[in-house]
């Protein structure tokens, strides 16, 4: 049975991003938007099942609504990993069929699974049998020499038959030979029209679009065009205030929105708790560098935080001081205007 609350949150989501969307990043993003759906970094099923790395599932209920993204290609392992995730409290388990990195290819999961829709369907079915939370999927429009117009509809039909009711489509092909993971995020051309056609072909499938989306205006346009959701990746990380602060009002119809300043103040107790548990400041603040992107004081903020956070004894006072300096610049700018 679909989780209606998570499905509603999937109207706007932040993409799972390796080395970026860890629990500290997600807690920050949750201070900026109460309603957007957040995703973990990809966690591999072998790491959980064979490696016993259950610490990778650590999170806080304060991050909800929250989805766990799994990587793998063994239906039995994925089912067991999905069960661990559901038992840990995740409200959705997402199967990665879109990542083009070398380590993903060598593990026979990620984008290379676009070549084997039957195996993906078996994985989805096994995961659905194992858990009561939503089982979803993130994919590309195709890989290498595949013709997306032919491959994608067949791929989606297979996973729908296996019980998948919600999918996010990165509107680029992945080239597993010849392009690096970084190049795969930019070089293959975007085909938004194909994703929109998939919604026409499969009207009952909840489809979110991903890839090259950098503003809430684009998010609103895709929703108006009939898609069920929009997932934002790098822009949500590098320009989090631009992407998240107005999202609850503009995308979900909330009456208010969050300010960067309030979000930073809300982070201070979290920072102190992390430090008291033996953590380091830069583990959190590395995700905060883009908070003032495009605003007066952005350079001062980045420099102060990046240079100060790695020093011994650095704590929340550094963040508060940097915020105070930026606010002074903002006030001066507004006074001139």
Describe the structure.
The chain has 337 residues and is α/β, with parallel strands linked by helices. The chain has 2 domains: 246 residues, Alpha-Beta Barrel (TIM Barrel), CATH 3.20.20.70; 77 residues, Four Helix Bundle (Hemerythrin (Met), subunit A) (Up-down Bundle). An 8-stranded parallel beta sheet has the order 1-8-7-6-5-4-3-2. Helix 3 links the parallel strand 2 and strand 3. Helix 14 packs antiparallel against helix 17. It is globular.
> How many helix segments?
17
Strand arrangement across the biggest beta sheet: 1-8-7-6-5-4-3-2
Q: What is the count of structural domains?
A: 2
Q: In angstroms, what is the radius of gyration?
A: 20 Å
Topology as a string of helices (H) and strands (E): HEHEHEHEHHEHEHHEHEHHHHHHH
**Terminal Cα span:** 54 Å
CATH architecture of the largest domain: Alpha-Beta Barrel
* Portion in beta strands: 5-15%
**How many β strands by DSSP?**
8
CATH fold category name of the largest domain: TIM Barrel
Give the helix/strand class: alpha/beta
By CATH reckoning, the class of the largest domain would read: Alpha Beta
Question: What is the averaged pLDDT score?
Answer: 94
Superfamily (CATH H level) name of the largest domain: Aldolase class I
Biggest beta sheet attributes? 8 strands, parallel
**Overall 3D form:** globular
Q: Outline the low-pLDDT stretches.
A: none
- In which range does the helix fraction lie? 40-55%
Oligomer designation: single chain
């Amino acid at each position: 049975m679909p989780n209606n609350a998570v499905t509603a949150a999937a109207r706007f989501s932040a993409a799972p991003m390796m080395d970026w969307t860890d629990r500290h990043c997600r807690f920050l993003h949750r201070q900026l938007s109460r309603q957007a759906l957040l995703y973990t970094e990809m966690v591999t099923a072998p790491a959980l099942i064979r490696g016993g790395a259950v610490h990778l599932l650590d999170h806080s209920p304060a991050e909800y609504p929250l989805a766990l993204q799994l990587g793998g290609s063994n239906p039995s392992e994925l089912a067991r990993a999905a069960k661990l995730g559901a038992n840990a409290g995740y409200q959705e388990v997402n199967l990665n069929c879109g990542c083009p990195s070398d380590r993903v290819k060598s593990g026979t999961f990620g984008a290379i699974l676009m070549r084997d829709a039957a195996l993906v369907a078996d994985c989805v079915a096994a995961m659905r049998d194992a858990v009561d939370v939503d089982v979803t999927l993130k994919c590309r429009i195709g890989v290498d020499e595949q013709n997306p117009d032919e491959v994608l509809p067949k791929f989606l039909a297979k996973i729908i038959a296996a019980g998948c009711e919600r999918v996010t489509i990165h509107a680029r092909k992945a080239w597993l030979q010849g392009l690096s993971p970084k190049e795969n995020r930019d070089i293959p051309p975007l085909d938004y029209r194909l994703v929109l056609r998939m919604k026409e072909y499969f009207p009952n499938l909840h489809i979110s679009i991903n890839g090259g989306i950098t503003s809430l205006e684009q998010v609103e346009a895709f929703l108006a065009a009939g898609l069920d959701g929009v997932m934002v990746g790098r822009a949500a990380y590098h320009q989090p205030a631009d992407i998240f602060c107005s999202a609850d009002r503009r995308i979900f119809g909330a009456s208010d929105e969050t300010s960067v300043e309030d979000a930073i103040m809300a982070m201070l107790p979290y920072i102190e708790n992390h430090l008291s548990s033996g953590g380091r400041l830069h583990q959190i603040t590395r995700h905060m560098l883009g908070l003032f992107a495009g605003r007066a004081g952005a350079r001062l903020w980045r420099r102060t935080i990046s240079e100060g956070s790695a020093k011994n004894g650095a704590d929340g006072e550094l963040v508060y001081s940097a915020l105070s300096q930026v606010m002074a610049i903002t006030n001066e700018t507004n006074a001139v205007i």
